[in-house]
Amino acid sequence: MASATDESLPNIQFGIMGCAEIAKKITRAIALAPNASIIAVASRDAEKARRFIASNALPEGTRAHGSYEALIEDEGVEAVYIPLPTKLHVLWAVAAAAKGKHVLLEKPTAVNASDLDKILAACEHNRVQFMDGTMWMHHPRTARMKEVLSDPGLIGPIQLIHSSCSFSATPEFLENNIRIRPDLDSLGALGDLGWYCIRAILWAVDYQLPSSATALPAVHSNNAGVLLACAASLHWDDGKVATFHCSFLSNTSMDISVHGASGSLQLTDFGIPYREDSASFELTTGAHFRELHIGWSKTPEEVLVATYLPQEALMVQEFARLVRLIRSSGGHPDPKWPGISRKTQLVMDAVKRSIDLGFKSVTM
Amino acid sequence: MASATDESLPNIQFGIMGCAEIAKKITRAIALAPNASIIAVASRDAEKARRFIASNALPEGTRAHGSYEALIEDEGVEAVYIPLPTKLHVLWAVAAAAKGKHVLLEKPTAVNASDLDKILAACEHNRVQFMDGTMWMHHPRTARMKEVLSDPGLIGPIQLIHSSCSFSATPEFLENNIRIRPDLDSLGALGDLGWYCIRAILWAVDYQLPSSATALPAVHSNNAGVLLACAASLHWDDGKVATFHCSFLSNTSMDISVHGASGSLQLTDFGIPYREDSASFELTTGAHFRELHIGWSKTPEEVLVATYLPQEALMVQEFARLVRLIRSSGGHPDPKWPGISRKTQLVMDAVKRSIDLGFKSVTM
N or C end: fewer C-beta atoms under 10 angstroms in chain B? Predict the structure, then answer.
């Protein structure tokens, strides 16, 4: 029996649902992934889908659909990539799953966990794979960092995590972008950037949910009430604490630092590495102050990790690998990725609720 | 008239009040500073003072006093360095000032702002210079970073500051050290390490006090109720937020990151530089994601700053310079340093109160 990684197996056939800017990146990623291909693109306007096909150099026969409905009715499409505005996720992800399409869904996965649960239930019921589009999870640097965090001799029990994700949005973005429109993405910076912070924090603690989340009184919203910046602290019963800040009003940042009892790990480009071919992080372990405290016994070590494919192509490859496994063996979807998405969404919900409650602590 | 920096002027004559470990570092710093000398050392035991003089290679004639009282009665002593346990600061700093001695006081300056105010009032009344022992303030890297923060084209309005200061204390430290004994230093990790975080945060915002301080529910205390670790968030009315974490239970860390609207500044050894002859920080300014978000337009720049003297010697030099100015011109003490100490102490008090109030927000 052929294994799911067998190169002779046919590629997973993707349909792209919507021609958002991010869809260009995933289109390139699918082209780079060795086990995936695009066979169809949908937009609410077939002409727009055709233009997307042409400008992204997709193969001749790629089908242009003038509706999302047509895409999920396309029998050749095995998996859909959905970069639609967040509010539309539940509608189209559920519809795609109902048609037996595997779902690669852009983050944030939904406007709340209740909506996400509908998506996950549909995927489970229809035995299709679900994965969210958090690309950095698939970079080999992430796996290397997890090895470091798991080695009791290097970091030790985690005490403090801090993350910041931000960019300085243009006036045009702040006026018109879907990520700040309440009808399309009510979570704003929390959904777009806080998602990364929350995911990174959960990733660092092996997805152990915090016992409480408390938003900090440092919120910026636009006139429609959509978050442009916010911050929160997360707490675990063992005294571990995480803080994060996400903002459309600050400089470009993608920081995470993890401090344990005996070492720390830090990087400033975790979500999107500075360059595509390799990425690094700083590791300090067992450092102490020299006698008289006139210096340190050691300086941070830079750990460099090369990658043969960009992280988004590795994400597509992993998703397609799981889909192939289901296709070839008739097996169940891998529950790991839906589980991680759900926990991220639950923490995001708790932070949002804390903001809505005037920064009260929300028990999880 | 001779200027205070004139090398022909006699050195400021220091007395060291107490033979704590940190006193060795300052003894070396005074030896390195070109305008200061040690002429006396006091301990509650004259023999201990004599041993300190011998083991730190102080000059033959250095006087050993068997009481702090004797030191402040020593007419040759112009300035005292006080590394005593925090609870004793108010007693001995006030007594030294009353005898006309200038006061270089180890941090935390007092167990609360009310005690510090007594010290500052005594210094002001007796026209003696006050400065706390926060050494990193005097490193040329700090001045260079302040230039960067003040340049509107580099960082822009500050949005987020995060700081972590910690070390992993030995069991012996956690059992016996004065910094965890309620009768000697009731502030524990907040006083010893949180002091650095708070100072760094205030320094970054040009000492604008936050409007509120809120401790996070991430406190570790010993059996006597002394803080071994804590965390807090500070808030300004313009939405700026700072978070910090200080701990005796975590790896060695001295991080600060400052994120502004257009750039960021980060370093992981702000309190004690990794090495003595130079120190660096990372500056990112005007970075954005490249097209398709497959990388960044620029990576952080490392800014390296050399120093001809260790930061603690520069601190002593600056303190002695101010004392010389008073001595030569009969002028007033420089109010800058007492003012900075007081603001640091006020924020520390607010964080402590927030902890005592069960993590309620404390308005400043």
Answer: N
ipTM: 0.94
Which of B159, B236, B272, B312 is most worth mutating to test chain A (most A CB atoms within 10 A of its CB)?
A: B159
Please list every residue in chain B whose beta carbon sits closer than 8 Å to the beta carbon of residue A264.
251, 253
- SS3 category, A144: helix
Residue A278 at interface with chain B, using a CB cutoff of 8 Å: no
Residues of A in contact with B277 (CB under 8 A): none
Residue A359, token pair as written in the block: 């920064």
Superfamily of domain A137-310+345-363: Dihydrodipicolinate Reductase; domain 2 (3.30.360.10)
Q: Which residue has the higher pLDDT, B1 or B242?
A: B242
Contact B243 A247 (CB under 8 A): no
Say which CATH topology domain B12-135+312-333 has.
Answer: Rossmann fold (3.40.50)
Write the residue in B162, B214, B263 that is nearest to A251 by C-beta. Answer: B263
SS3 A240: coil
In this structure, what DSSP letter does residue B216 have? -
- Helices A195-204 and A140-150: crossing angle, nearest 10°? 40
Mean pLDDT confidence for A185-200: 95
Sign of the torsion formed by the C-alpha atoms of A175, A179, A184 and A187: negative
Closest by CA to A209, choosing from A350, A356, A114, A105, is: A350
Whole-number average pLDDT of chain B: 95
Cα–Cα distance for residue pair A144/A149, rounded to 1 Å? 9
Please give the residue of chain B at the shortest CA–CA distance from A255. Answer: B257
Output the pLDDT for position A2: 43
Domain boundaries, chain B: 12-135+312-333, 137-310+345-363
Mean pLDDT of A103-130: 97
Environment class of B364 (CB within 10 Å of its CB; exposed 0-12, middle 13-18, buried 19+): middle
